[in-house]
């Protein structure tokens, strides 16, 4: 075993944001929207840090999805940018959006591996991606184990997991950690996880031998690590707006001290000009379309709140108007940079729903609405972190939902009303939705995909309405 100093640098949940963008930062109850992020700033920061000390640069995933240029190219637009920055490993979640075969093709073009101890081929049971990697920095051998999002085959659209299955990784990790230490001579072991912060806290308490756990998925912006035993857990927000830095001192295979910093990627960061040139090349074919102003908003549209969010109020109002329905549902997605008050561009609309699915309709009974929402509340607030399998609470339009979060599964809904009338189990309701995350297939009947897609519905609605400080037709209230 050797000794030395090392810095772990974390980027998580960038969601395809190539350039600086507004990010919501709370100052007490006041929301501010500084321009943060951008791969050129990340590259400049990393480049300067590499001149100071040995680093290991890791990406927790949710990388190849989230903005128009990245989704339009199925991730291809990012490859030269990521390779120029020089990451050491990544894992994933939304990166599976184009199917595991396509993700494997992307991974072969990276200069570093996609790692997952918990993604297996359904036919032969073999690992789809390498589980671990060892890198040498500053005289230290660093073992890295990746844990992909376990929900890829459980709550995501079916094409995400064609031919593969996912576990939590808890059962697999101990053997990989032992191999890294005993057979591959790792001086320290880092787990790169996309399970989510609550899940990673539980995992760190169950699996020994983890010197540092880099967490992703839940967009937690941790100003300081959370310690589970002697394992520090860090997570660094989303959209590339912040980078996590963990300086570690290692003696004879033991971490003797560490220091953490959550670093804002603001305008004090030096842009890397070669990476900026790659970004400009990726955006050039799309800039004119993305910059088109299609409306305005008097309030900030964001997804940074758990129960209701103004960005999704607008999305649901748009799809309900397009479908001519009273109700509308969408998933409680976390990604999507805020849109400050002022002009709304096509880029902003694509950032709201980058996959641009069709607007769909479904017939639901009142009982099915209640069951669907109870299931979603359990997946959001389950007492066992491993049972938490979603984003924020499902977004709803056209109903008012009163909930008791502390209640046990199946009993969190206090009551639901539609236009002030209590929802009845035998009600027959028509609802609009987007993607099967909005209304899962097991609920409802008579599904139809309409000819209009989500971005077009948003463009029509935002051209006719100016979002302001008023309640839209749906509200979830914790009582």
Fold and architecture overview:
It contains twelve helices and 28 strands. By secondary structure, the chain is an alpha/beta fold. It has two domains: 4-283, Metallo-dependent phosphatases (Purple Acid Phosphatase, chain A, domain 2), CATH 3.60.21.10; 291-478, Alpha-Beta Complex (5'-nucleotidase,  domain 2). Helix 1 runs parallel beside helix 3 (79-85), helix 1 (39-52) runs antiparallel to helix 7 and helix 9 (310-323) crosses helix 12 (454-464). The chain is globular and about 70 Å long. It starts with a strand and ends with a strand. The relative contact order is 0.14.
CATH structural class of the largest domain: Alpha Beta
Largest beta sheet: strand ordering: 9-10-12-13-15-14
| Uncertain stretches of 5 or more adjacent residues | none
Helix and strand composition category: alpha/beta
Average pLDDT taken over every residue: 96
Largest beta-sheet characterization: 6 strands, mixed
Q: How many beta-strand segments?
A: 28
Helix fraction bin: 10-25%
By CATH, the topology of the largest domain is Purple Acid Phosphatase, chain A, domain 2
Number of domains: 2
CATH architecture classification name of the largest domain: 4-Layer Sandwich
Strand content: 25-35%
